[in-house]
Amino acid sequence: MNYYSTNKQAPDATLEEAVVKGLAADKGLFMPYAIKSLPQDFYDSIETLSFQEIAYRVADAFFGEDVPADTLKQIVYDTLNFDVPLVKVAENIYSLELFHGPTLAFKDVGGRFMARLLGYFIAKEGKKQVNVLVATSGDTGSAVANGFLGVEGIHVYVLYPKGKVSEIQEKQFTTLGQNITAIEVDGTFDDCQALVKSAFMDRELNERLQLTSANSINVARFLPQAFYYFYAYAQLKKMACDKVQAGNNPSPVICVPSGNFGNITAGLFGKRMGLPVKRFIAANNSNDIFYQYLQTGVYTPRPSVATIANAMDVGDPSNFARVLGLYDNSHAAISAEVSGVAYTDEQIAETMRETWKEYHYLLDPHGACGFRALEEGLKPGETGIFLETAHPAKFLDTVEGIIGEAVEIPAKLKAFMQGEKKSLPLTKEFADFKKYLMSL
Ligand SMILES: *Cc1c(COP(=O)(O)O)cnc(C)c1O
Fold it and tell me: Which backbone phi and psi does 96 adopt, to 5 degrees?
């Protein structure tokens, strides 16, 4: 299947080109020409399928024309070697726990899938070394670095804003060594993202190095995020069939804590493929650019501000272009399927405290935005699912400070914390970054 650029000024790309390049030559994001619906019989029996079986059906719709079936199946099954359980938190509100992977955030799904698909293309073509550039506000860096760790033919450069990620997050990508280099940028996440984008646009750099992006602009990271929306629905339907919850129409409201909008856009693709979702809610922190867009019809990016939900501190969400593309630039069409909320740090903290007290469910600051949106916004008879995007222990100081209790740290996280941090300090000036890359 071919991919077009959201800016419509670049030639079409094959899947391989889109994955290897990351961003189109006109700075647009790649979009598949077709979003295939899945047949009714798939939805009719979805609750009988495993996560891996469901994900393979979805992956086949996206990538089946371009990747041999056995390879694709292997990639999907290897990627999803952990569960994504749907857990009841309150009456009619369920948490889709996306933090059971190796780095305890949803980005493991896209990171692991992309590493494997890119590895497949590189092996197939016998390409020279590919350099993956990834800007992170915290969780992307760890998921991508761990997904790519030790993959032959690929070197990963993780750019992160100095002092703006939690210690645990930082440890997850600065302690790995091997083919992973962490670059500590004296700036914000937006500065990191700008450096990566500038690098892709720089002719001299691209002549010298094969560069690609592992941010959610890359289709191989972005599209696999659709998998767990289908699995969430399957689990909800199973509960309804088993009468674990009332009602026999499980078409849920899905709330996604959003920063760069890759996660929610993958869900919107799922809905386009026929997944029964009543509507979506995009939950923002104080960086409420999308929320403002919904209110006014005008998209006004602005510099991000730091919040306790730091993975959502994004001032110019890159996947907004895909949302526009999906709905033909229609504000009305977007508003019909997606609503928005925005919460301050005080509201996020209050939600975490109250949910812990009332339901004994520990939210992380991002998931808290999702839970609160459902608590406030579900209409009578609706069932809500929020995406719990990371494990609360990834934000240990914040979470412990808010609930006033010690939080148990999962063994997987403890192991990272024992490593020694190694990073390369850099300014936010592109000239410095370029000089470094040219010296490789
Ligand atoms: C990345 C991230 C988000 C935001 O996801 P987007 O796809 O960028 O919208 C939300 N929560 C956590 C924990 C994250 O790591």
Answer: -90, 105
